[in-house]
Amino acid sequence: MSGTDVSHRNHIDGLFRAHYSWLCAHLRRHLGASPSVEDIAAETFVQLLQSPGLTPIREPRALLTTIARRLIYQLWRRRNLEHRHLDQLQHDDPQSVKSPEELVQLSQALQGLDQTLGRLPGKVRATFLLSRVDGLTYPQIAAELGISQRSVSVYMTRSQALCDRHSANQPLNALTRRSA
Fold first, then answer.
1. pLDDT tens profile 129-171
2. Over the stretch 94-104, which tens digit does the pLDDT of each residue have?
3. Do residues 58 and 110 both lie within one domain?
4. CA-CA distances (angstroms) from residue 156 to 117, 148, 160, 170?
5. What CATH number does the domain containing 98 carry?
6. What CA–CA distances, in Å, run from 9 to 15, 20, 24, 56, 68?
7. How many domains does the chain have?
């Protein structure tokens, strides 16, 4: 471990000690008594810890708030996607109403897929979600993210390949096929 790694870790440790309680209180004001508050606050610091070559932070609370807000949006998007998918499965064929066990398995599979997508770089993940979740076209995605349509195509190919590898190892396909 290099000296800069230790220095970076120590810097984030200091930020954690100084601002974790404040961040949790701030998140509680916006999310209420959600069990996700501590998870989001902790993940905020994990992301700081994982960011290479972080420059000195002049306004740590502003940065922490920005990262936490992005994590909240990701949580909401993931929950909306999960609910829409489960609703769609139940509305497609009323005869194929899932048992609670199947719904839990499906939810776990979706969470696994979300974790898989979480390994993608930000713009690649955003491209995939804007296409698959929000239904935007490649030109719309390019305009939204300020990238070329070629980049959108490359990012979609990359994210789709990752999803294909993920689905080959998950029970999601088996669950959705059983209802067909």
1. 888 877 889 999 888 888 999 999 999 998 888 877 766 665 5
2. 556 667 787 78
3. no
4. 12, 12, 6, 21
5. 1.10.10.10
6. 10, 15, 21, 13, 19
7. 2
